[in-house]
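Re: that backbone. Tokens:
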């Protein structure tokens, strides 16, 4: 890589890191139910299936707004959309203090999911405007530090906060931070100034007829489920099935994610140099094996599986986005993201946690982990439909 390119990326790094900070708070708020799940179940007197069903409601709102965002970005610049998403989603979380019933919780989680979902297409467009295409893998790696750092800090933050407030108060604190950062980005942020072309019916039809589109829906779904769904149910799994205390469970979840930020950076570096194909194939196999370890009853093996599953998922995300960028022309990518990511997020952050919750209530969380592991390995068969360029170095 040339010195001029490295200099260019260094100049863009502070603003890339700012966008990553916004994503970290967005992702933290969307993941916050995980360490609060036991307290919410107890407070609202609901079971695993009803509690994890809130994530399905949140994911439905999130996915709907991601699709709508593809049209809105033709009229509102990505930078302004990022600020709007953070501010409005923060206000929704402040409304969590009014939740007293499961029905009200569903309403607030649905609204929050819709407002939070406006971030991702706009955030990725803002990120891409800050760096050259050659540095896309590194930029995504920096961006992916956000959820992986969130996975470490969130359980510890929730555990400390619950000593002074209930789960509603934790959401209110996060909502205040979201709203303030949204206003800060509106005033001081850079990037994302170009309006996108509006999606067209012909473009959507062509995209849905392309086999690679469906492959990436599957790949994104598996990766998002690996990142979000397993994290969402791990604390309640460790408490109810392995009989850890809530404090110990949150500490173990945090500890198992300790290497994930380094994995995301290393994944971006390898994706730029070694190509995406080998990383994606290795991920699908190792992910399935790690999920199988999480289904065991021995705590040591469960912790090893938790740590390995989180590490390989963080490592693979930059390669997955790299493969996506190499599969489609740049002009088509915003439309394809607005089609693939809503479906993947509905499955990965909604249906998959709800499925694990059902398994936990009627069988065991371990059975759910085994099922997700099998799906991960079977996904290898879909890679045959990708263009050869998608799995190369680029």
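Recovered sequence:
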């Amino acid at each position: 890589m040339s010195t001029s390119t490295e200099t260019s990326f260094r100049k863009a790094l502070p603003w890339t890191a700012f966008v990553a900070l916004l994503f970290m708070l967005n992702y933290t708020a969307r993941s916050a139910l995980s360490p609060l799940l036991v307290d919410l179940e107890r407070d609202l007197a609901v079971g695993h299936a009803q509690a994890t069903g809130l994530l399905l409601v949140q994911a439905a709102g999130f996915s709907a707004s991601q699709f709508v965002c593809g049209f809105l970005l033709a009229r509102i610049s990505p930078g302004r959309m990022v600020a709007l998403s953070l501010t409005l989603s923060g206000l929704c979380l402040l409304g969590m203090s009014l939740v007293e019933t499961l029905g009200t919780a569903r309403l607030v989680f649905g609204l929050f999911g819709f407002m939070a979902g406006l971030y991702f297409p706009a955030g990725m467009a803002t990120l891409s405007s800050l760096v050259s295409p050659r540095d896309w893998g590194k930029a995504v790696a920096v961006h992916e530090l956000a959820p992986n750092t969130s996975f470490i800090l969130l359980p510890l933050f929730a555990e400390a906060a619950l000593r002074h407030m209930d789960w509603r108060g934790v959401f209110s604190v996060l909502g205040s931070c979201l709203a303030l950062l949204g206003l800060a980005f509106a005033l001081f942020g850079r990037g994302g100034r170009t309006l996108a072309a509006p999606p067209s019916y012909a473009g959507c039809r062509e995209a849905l007829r392309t086999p690679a589109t469906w492959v990436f829906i599957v790949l994104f779904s598996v990766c998002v489920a690996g990142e979000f769904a397993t994290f969402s149910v791990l604390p309640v799994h460790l408490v109810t099935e392995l009989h850890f205390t809530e404090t110990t469970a949150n500490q173990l979840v945090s500890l198992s994610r300790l290497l994930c930020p380094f994995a995301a950076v290393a994944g971006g570096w390898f994706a730029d140099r070694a190509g995406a194909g080998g990383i994606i194939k290795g991920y699908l196999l190792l992910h399935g094996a790690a999920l199988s370890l999480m289904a065991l009853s021995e705590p040591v093996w469960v912790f090893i599986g938790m740590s390995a599953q989180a590490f390989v998922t963080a490592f693979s995300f930059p390669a997955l986005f790299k493969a996506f960028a190499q599969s489609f022309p740049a002009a088509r990518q915003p439309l394809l993201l607005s089609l693939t990511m809503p479906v993947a997020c509905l499955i990965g952050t909604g249906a998959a946690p709800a499925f694990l919750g059902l398994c936990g209530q009627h069988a065991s969380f371990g059975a759910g982990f085994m099922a997700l592991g099998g799906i991960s390995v079977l996904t290898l068969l879909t890679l045959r439909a990708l263009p050869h360029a998608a799995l190369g170095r680029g």
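The longest helix spans residues 211-240. Residues 11-391 form a domain with the Growth Hormone; Chain: A; fold (CATH 1.20.1250.20).
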